[in-house]
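Reopening this one. Same input as before:
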Amino acid sequence: MPASPAPDEPAADAARTLPRRLPAVPLPQSGESLFSWIDHLAAHYDVDRTQIMNRLGLKPATAHAARLARHTAELPLACARPLHAATAIDPKQLRDMTLFGIVRQSTGRLDRHPDYRWAPEETWAFCPQCLAPPARWPLWWYHSWAVVCPTHRCYTASSCPDCGSPFSPSILRSDAPGRCPGFLPRADNPVALPPPGKRLSKRQRCGRPLWEIETPPATDPAVHAVFHRLLQFHDEETPSKDLQQWYDDLRTLKVLLADPHPLRVRAFTSTDLVLQERFTAEEGPSPWEDPALLIRWRRSDSGFLYPMRRTSPNTWTGLRDPISAAAKLTVIASVLDSQDPAAAARGVFAVTHPARLRDFDDHLPSYMYRASPGLRELLARALDPQAAARLPET
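Same output, byte for byte:
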């Protein structure tokens, strides 16, 4: 049935603006993202994304994919009403398919991701096997802890190995679901400037079937345990006090392990050899490898290795690496889940230098103020006196 008009709207106006109910509506999968579900609706009716968005009352402009990406972050109430009327999907389900829920009025700013400034034109990572047609993808792929797939028990991927493009729903072609929409490197030279009087060759779409990408199995139970706990935190409408405290502590340690912040892991003992390959106990800057390579590995201050991609003759760009992120999460969880977090932190982490307020844009993250007493000793060593003085007394 169509949604009831808001009390401040005349009934006649609501009848004119709300779309008619679709005859059949495939239900969203558990945890599915709004972008994925609307793409699936388009495939169900064998129409393109623009047509189904029009039918749902979303009134796409020429940048319809970008608009749908923004709706996946936060769904304006003015769009949620016709969407509910056309599909009869429960408003709670619509809210759960978005990162920030249904909002009365969009601010136009999408820099509120809890870990970094970001908008949902691309996912943080993806499971290749989940993109086998008919491709549908969950909302948790947008989070920086999207390191393993609980269905296929494998590590996720951050980009296409052929062209380096991340999985970007906003440029995903509706006529080629699950295929990489990025561009291949130019055949002549992908990183050098053309000689005088010559043009670079035309770039071609990649089109690689993303579901054919192979990622290694995740064999460390600690990876799955911390992932499911993070999934539980984001799935619960009101997380328990203990779970909220665990999440605040995890984010505190995570930011202190990020470059150029102060913590270094003394030793890494995971039984998963794939994770072990992402850690080195050596100190100092990463060696500069063969300049002809397009990918090299950089050693972070924390001791974990991250891939770098050559994007110009003198420019290297860091790539997201779910395996390195998974290794870091297991170390953090081993401290937080110990009987004595303070003693565990002393054994696991070395403080290479104190982090200054300037490292945090002159103010500490809000979750650091809520860190548990078991981390206060570590924070006192990891922050300079000015930064440590900002923390509340225990």
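So the earlier flakiness isn't reproducible anymore. For the record, Residues 1-16 have pLDDT under 50 and may be disordered.
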